[in-house]
Amino acid sequence: MRKDSDGGRRIDGEGVYLRTPEARDYQDWAAVRDASRNFLTPWEPTWAQDETSRGSYRYKVRRYTEDARDDKAYALFVFREDDDALLGGVTLSNVRRGVAQTASLGYWAGQMHAGKGYITAAVRAVVRYAFEDLELHRVEAACQPDNMASRRVLEKAGFTQEGMARAYLKINGAWRDHILFGIVNEAG
What fold does the segment set 2-184 form as a domain? Predict the structure, then answer.
């Protein structure tokens, strides 16, 4: 991890980089999310009426900043290295310290960028960040059994399938089963 030109968090990956969301990202974020709404909603919590409004985005950025400051969660946007295009996002949430030293991983890609390896590269980079910079021991992730693209991301990034959780998360208005994955920092 290194600081970007504005002093924020920046993580470099293979062909991508991740950095802390900023106010200046609103237009790109809203455009990618709006264009990908039908693609994303089957896999995400129910979208609010004003999901991609400027006010909603400002609230999210404030929350991301507070969560990172408090070591609760780290939200990052994924950008293509070649042209700085916003591709999606990755979040380490529910950071647990003490004897656990773990966090939960979530990610999304704009429909126009899905299936091109960008999110796999971003997940690999954020796992390295979690282990080396945040000194976590474990990162957990979950995906719905029929989300084959998400399963492939996790498998390619080195996660191991660990089990199944019934009615694990409320996604798009309904409680959904999820396959549980994990990756452990073998160095520490």
Answer: Aminopeptidase (3.40.630)
